[in-house]
Amino acid sequence: MWTKEITDMIINGVWATLYMTVASTVLGYVFGLPMGVLLAITDKEGLTPNAVVYKILDVIANIVRSIPFLILLILLIPFTRLLVGQSYGSTATIVPLVIAAIPFIGRMVESIKEVDPGVIEAARSMGASNMQIVMKVLLVEARTSLLTGATIAIGTILGYSAMAGCVGGGGLGDIAIRYGYYRYQTSIMIVTVVLLVILVQIFQSIGMFLAAKLDKRK
User: Fold this and answer.
1) What pLDDT, on a 0 to 100 scale, did the predictor assign at position 57?
2) What is the spatial distance between Cα 177 and Cα 155, in angstroms, rounded to a whole number?
3) What is this structure's pTM?
């Protein structure tokens, strides 16, 4: 059963999974980071409290996060097709992955509001603007928790990419569904699951190592 074609297919599946995961995480942070910062600074105890803006972002984040990813994937098929010209394959799967990742990442980044208020007041006393406080104080002081959050986010997105295999999303999840489920080739499914676990552990180990290195408390 383990022909060169199957081996090549699994190798390509690994690359497709990495492509979807990394691209979706990067794009997720492009939009999720600003969302998280806005959630933090418009909170009632934030730098610039704004109940309306906070409530709008809070509701959007809660709604998107409450929709199971497979359902969100199906709901976004027309939008995905409009955006990339097709609703299947690795590139198409990035669209719903990013949509699902944005509020998740936003909530992770929102943790910057837990930075010691004393540090913020010290920056204010030295004449720092709100933008400078966000860029040079909040994001810097919270870098360890932000990196830990990024590690969690990339593991979650990788798991979502595997779920997308149910609708032809590509990658290892697609291989597991097509061969392990529909064709009853259990060995292929086991290999894909093991590879997914290994990828998650690699990302987790790298993220935790970097977070420990950046943790100024140690």
Assistant:
1) 92
2) 20
3) 0.85
202: amino acid identity, one letter:
I
Q: Which two tokens stand for residue 14?
A: 């690994």
DSSP character for 89?
A: S
Closest by alpha carbon to 20, among 79, 103, 107, 97? 97
d(CA 102, CA 109): 10
Alpha carbon distance 216, 218 (integer Å): 5
Distances (CA, A) of 8 to 42, 67, 118, 199, 209: 50, 35, 56, 18, 32
Spatial distance between the Cα atoms of 97 and 18, rounded to a whole number of angstroms: 13
Query: Token digits for 17?
Result: 């999974």
Burial of 19 by CB count in 10 Å (0-12 exposed, 13-18 middle, 19+ buried)? Answer: middle
Closest CA to 196 of 169, 214, 167, 174: 174
All residues at 6 or more sequence positions from 148 whose CB lies less than 8 Å from its CB, including other chains: 207, 208, 211
pLDDT digits (tens, 9 = 90+) for 173-210: 888 888 877 777 888 888 888 998 898 899 888 888 88
* Token couple for 212: 């420990």
Which amino acid is present at 92?
A
Give the dihedral of Cα atoms 160, 166, 168, 170; nearest 10 deg: 40
